[in-house]
Amino acid sequence: METQSSGLEPGLYIVAGPIGNLGDLTPRAAEVLRLADVVAVEDTRVSARLLRHAGSDRPMIPYHDHSGENVRQRLVDRMAGESVALLSDAGTPLISDPGYKLVRDARAAGRRITTLPGPSAAIAALTLSGLPTDRFLFMGFLPSKAKARGDALDEVAGLRATLVFYESGPRLSESLSAMAAHLGDRDAAVSREISKAFEETACGTLSELSARYADAPPRGEIVVTVGPPGEAAPASAENADAALLEALTRLSVSKAAGEVAKKLGLDRRTLYDRATELKG
Residues in domain Tetrapyrrole methylase (predicted)? Predict the structure, then answer.
């Protein structure tokens, strides 16, 4: 198929937009927004401001959580001969929004897909937090109901990685309190309004931050980063004996030693010898 007169090959262009400061839009992203045949956006009112900043007058099509499959299919069909730019309200599309479905269907249809890297609130907050960044897990927004939220936190409580959450001001204090209850009172950071005039990052333990925002819910886009769990204290001889005695009520000496070694992180051979003594 021939290249469009716009200068862009037909296909999908994933465009990362600013998370606050419009000056963070890359020159390449601005060029794609000016040249694309159509721009798929979450909210036309929000994206119109960015398109004006980029000098773009390209038509917009709403594409968001509530868009039906037919809207997605029409966009994929257009990619056969036109360039479609995908733009979220802020930051990198697909991060906590439904864009992955469009990419999935475009790839299945054999369309050309290009990504234009740029701002991401989750990554920006990690760089501001002062918490370990060698391993991290992006969790998006936690469920609003208490039990579902607790279940989600319990699922990752033992993961040795920094956790990254998106949150809203009215829910912030309650969510921080739930994190403290299910993850332990870890070091954390709350970053908001990143790259804007009132950018702020507050650091402390989860309980301290929960108390800070209990009576003063902040405004703006919020990212919570939570440090990994601390190192577990070494198991004592008394702990090992108690665990072995319990295991020996159910298992052979060998299997009891293996179970406790895995549970407490101790040497299996040493535990086998001790279990033999206890059994005798």
Answer: 12-209
Give CATH for domain 11-119.
Answer: 3.40.1010.10
Domain boundaries, the chain: 11-119, 122-226, 237-279
What architecture (CATH level 2) is domain 122-226?
2-Layer Sandwich (3.30)
Reported as half-sphere exposure (CB side, CA atoms, 13 A), residue 187 has a value of: 11
Q: Give tens-digit pLDDT for 207-255.
A: 999 999 999 999 888 999 999 998 655 667 778 888 899 889 989 999 9
In tens, the pLDDT along 69-106 reads 899 999 999 999 999 999 999 999 999 877 899 999 99
Distance (Å, whole) CA 209 – CA 206: 5
Which residues are registered as beta bridge partners of 83?
A: 11
Q: pTM of whole model > 0.85?
A: no
Ordered DSSP codes for 53-66: HHT----EEE-STT
- What does the DSSP assignment read for 74-86? HHHHHTTTSEEEE
